[in-house]
Amino acid sequence: MKIDSITLHHLSMPLVSPFETSFGRETDRECVLIEIKSQGLTGYGECVATRDPGYNYETAGTAIHILRDFVSPLILGRDVKDAADFQNIVAGIRGHNLAKAGVEMALWDLLGKRENKSLRELLGGVRDKVEVGVSVGIQSSARSLVETVAGYVSQGYARIKIKIKPGRDVEDASAVRKEFPNIRLQVDANSAYSLDDFQVLKPLDALNLLLIEQPLFEDDIWDHHKMQEQFVTPICLDESIVSPRHARYAIEMNACRIINIKAGRLGGLSQAVMTHDICRDVSMPVWCGGMLETGIGRASNVALASLPNFTLPGDISASDRYYAQDITNERFVLNPDSTIDVPRGPGLGMTIDEDALKQFSLNRIEVK
Ligand code: OSB
Ligand code: MG
Question: What φ, ψ does residue 185 adopt, rounded to 5°?
Fold first, then answer.
């Protein structure tokens, strides 16, 4: 596909409710929408970097810098055959996976539109709908957390993830478990602890959790191995797994029993599929993580989660859990069985609401 033009849309979208994690609180979500034109077709990709370097080192600002000044010059006017070709072309740019993944997503959208195939078909997905759950941010108290969770449960979410941080962990998780003895429940610490916190976290092991997500440092694998040895509950890695290679390291070190797959963190959908395959080959379950995506990134997540080894529910909620107004005309809805349908249209299967795009635009950069 010859790359004719690249436009970066720096967006800020109001969330329906603030989202608080161990690294901060977001009321609006920033991201970068990447629009690529190729031979009469337009493809869209979402770079999931946010305003602050809290989840990892990338931000919407660093992504725009890398995309405008380094990635775009390598692909503009050039014939990029597919995702593998793209990865080769940008291999000299170290890191900045969220930025690269946004471009790769737009290339998949173009590829699907050109071949009249859905992303699910292109990636080898096997499901028409995927099991989902909701990720609930830290609330003002354990009591209000239980109320918030109850709201999502009544909407039909059959799997709940709660965010934890030091001082807001065992009590919060226990309160939710007490109120919902049978629900599929998991916690996510976003790297807020160290091995010294072992005694604090140990009571989580008695709460029948599906998993404990990324308790320790974002660049760690070995200490997670030490922690996993002491816990019955599976440890799940998110931040630490930044390439398929890192998945192999974690598997070989017995650092976790489950991996959260995010195409952004891994540097692209192609890398996400490779990670999925590595885990499948050793029977390690994976699930699709989320980054509060717009309809564009959500479509990509849902298609990815339709691959066979995504056997645990993803952090993929209905559009209305995040946004009153999205940038796509199509919205994702929750089915009564706690699933979301996989789009069927070519590429991502989504169309842009141009008025909404304008409304949420902080900046529009045409790279030439
Ligand atoms: O750690 O999974 C995470 C959101 C932003 C950054 C990191 C994470 C999250 C979530 C939200 O948990 C998942 C979602 O999109 O619903
Ligand atoms: Mg996480």
Answer: -125, 140
**pLDDT value for 229:** 97
Supply 9's token pair.
């849309």
Is 262 catalytic? The answer is yes
CA-to-CA distance for 150 and 257, rounded, in angstroms? 29
Atom number in ligand 1 closest to CA 188: 1
The separation between the first and the last C-alpha atoms of the chain, rounded to the nearest angstrom, is: 17
Residue located nearest, by CA, to atom 7 of ligand 1: 291
pLDDT in tens, 4-58: 999 999 999 999 999 999 999 999 999 999 999 999 999 999 999 999 999 999 9
Give the nearest ligand 1 atom to 292 CA.
15
Number of Cβ within 10 Å of residue 114's Cβ equals 16
- 121-341 carries CATH number 3.20.20.120: yes
Q: Whole-angstrom Cα distance, residue 276 to residue 101? A: 16
What confidence tens digit (pLDDT) does each residue in 326-362 have? 999 999 999 999 999 999 999 999 999 999 999 999 9
Q: What is the sign of the dihedral through the CA atoms of 239, 243, 248 and 252?
A: negative
CA distance 232 to 256: 11
pTM check: above 0.90 = yes
Residue ranges in the chain whose pLDDT is less than 50: none
- The answer to whether domain 5-116+354-367 has CATH 3.30.390.10 is yes
Task: Please give the Cα distance from 355 to 161 (Å, whole number).
Answer: 33
